[in-house]
Amino acid sequence: MSRISDIETAILGLLYEKPQYGYQLEKSIESWGMRNWTQIGFSSIYYVLKKLEKKELVTSRLEKVEGKPSRKIFTITDLGRETMEEKLKELLSWNKKLTSPFDLGIAYLNYLEPQEVIECLENYIKSAEGRIKFLESSVKMQKELKAPYYVTALFSRPLEILKTEIEWVKQLIETIKKEENI
């Protein structure tokens, strides 16, 4: 079974739904709001498609369009479907360790004055609260659009994680104040 990256999984998932050409994939990525939960740039789409084609997970064919240049339509193969299904089972079965640059800040926060740390953490909370507003509006919009539950879950999961993280940061601030007698 071919190993595929998360970005390859994202593109393969869109092709699992239906054959598409590059610009259609870009529009699908935008409409799904995928850049909010994946690391996929516009310029990487064609690079990933070439990799998937080399691994025989997708095929391509040229489609003539009257008055325009031909476009390359990509279609998932049976091997691509099988690989995608295996990757999905893996992704949904294992809790992968998340890494965050925030943890680096925590590791070395003792190099700053306690009041500076508190100020930074309060800024972090403000930043997170802005993200919460975005996620809440996204969840609301998905529900209004009657999007499938799994699409709404792409926004509700990080929303709940962020709410919990804010509470944790508030507790950390209180611990710093107590430990440093502030």
From TrEMBL:
Keywords noted in UniProt: Coiled coil
From the UniProt record, list the coiled-coil ranges: 118-179
InterPro entries the record matches = Metal_resp_DNA-bind_regulator, Tscrpt_reg_PadR_N, WH-like_DNA-bd_sf, WH_DNA-bd_sf
Q: Where is the Transcription regulator PadR N-terminal domain?
A: 11-86
Alphabetized Pfam families for the sequence: PadR (PF03551)
The name on file for this protein is: PadR family transcriptional regulator
